[in-house]
Design a protein that fits this description.
Order of helices and strands: HHHHHHHHHHHHHH
CATH class of the domain at 95-299: Mainly Alpha
Number of helices: 14
Shape: flat
């Protein structure tokens, strides 16, 4: 197991560096001079030139890239052009909000999607199965920003049960969490239903039933556990994306997470913050995927990493 983890981490290094290179390249393709934006319309050419020198924007693209990668390898993500704070400080100040939102969203998605998928599999071909499948397709197909706007109109504007935006009001996390969870819940429901239908056809399920094992034990212990691997894969991938920052959702609900940080930094041409956030996103996705793969061995003891 340890050698497998070490190999995966070694393979991840060029992936992370590649993500950093891509983010560096794309930021240089965006029109607009961050020094001009930061200095303002009334700034003199001397002031703009001084800002370019201060933030290392006066050199060639190659020189900026070499400097950036050198700082990155030393664990220095740079300094925000917009605020003057270190990029690590900017990310750390937003990470807690994103983690809270991601954890609540994935919890709702697992509970909702798992129940829908399980019930659909057990009631295959019925009106209930069709209705729940339509709900799952709805969750996967509807754009996140549209779901968010609908929830704001219904629960914040008309019913006035929940706040429409921000993070300070009580239960402010509910609407963005539900918005994010519906998309993931749709995937979880469809995968759970498909995996359960496949498992319920197996011989050991028929054997357990013929031996008089209670139906609940057959479904939960023999069925759901053996159908868990593909479902865990979906959950791991979705959770990694949620931790990466839900840009649209955080923007709609003014949630102060890393996704909103990326949007604000792009608008201000804050190169270091965008590059640093993408770098953190890449590491997060790799670690979550690795933990997902490792969890297979605990779910199914027959799996071994040699």
């Amino acid at each position: 197991m340890f050698s497998y983890i070490a190999r995966r981490l070694a393979i991840a290094v060029p992936t992370v560096l590649g993500a950093a290179t891509v983010s560096f390249s794309f930021m240089r393709l965006i029109p607009g001079d961050p020094a001009v934006l930061m200095a303002g319309l009334q700034a003199t050419p001397e002031q703009i030139a001084r800002l370019r020198t201060q933030f290392g924007l006066d050199g060639s693209i190659l020189e900026q890239y070499v400097t950036y990668m050198g700082q990155l390898l030393r664990g220095n993500l740079g300094t925000s052009i917009r605020t003057g704070q270190s990029v690590l400080h900017e990310i750390a100040s937003r990470a807690q909000a994103t983690i809270e939102l991601a954890l609540l969203s994935i919890a709702i998605a697992i509970l909702l999607g798992g129940v829908i998928g399980l019930v659909s599999a057990l009631r295959r071909g019925t009106i209930l199965d069709t209705s729940l499948s339509v709900f799952a397709v709805f969750g996967v197909s509807m754009p996140v920003y549209w779901i968010g706007l609908l929830l704001i109109i219904v629960f914040a504007v008309h019913l006035r049960w929940l706040p429409a935006a921000g993070s300070t009001a009580p239960f402010a996390i509910v609407l963005p969490a539900v918005t994010l969870s519906l998309f993931t819940a749709g995937f979880v429901a469809r995968q759970t239903r498909s995996a359960m239908l496949e498992v319920l056809r197996q011989d050991y399920i028929r054997t357990a039933r013929s031996k008089g094992v209670p139906r609940s034990a057959v479904v939960l212990k023999h069925g759901l556990r053996n159908a868990a691997l593909p479902v865990v894969t979906i959950i791991g991938l979705q959770f990694g994306q949620l931790l990466g920052g839900a840009i649209l959702t955080e923007s709609i609900f003014a949630w102060p997470g890393m996704g909103r940080l990326v949007v604000d930094s792009l608008a201000a041409r804050d190169f270091p913050v965008v590059q640093g956030t993408v770098f953190v996103f890449a590491i997060t996705l790799i670690l979550v995927n690795l933990l997902t793969d490792v969890s297979y061995a605990f779910i199914d003891p027959r799996i071994r990493y040699d």
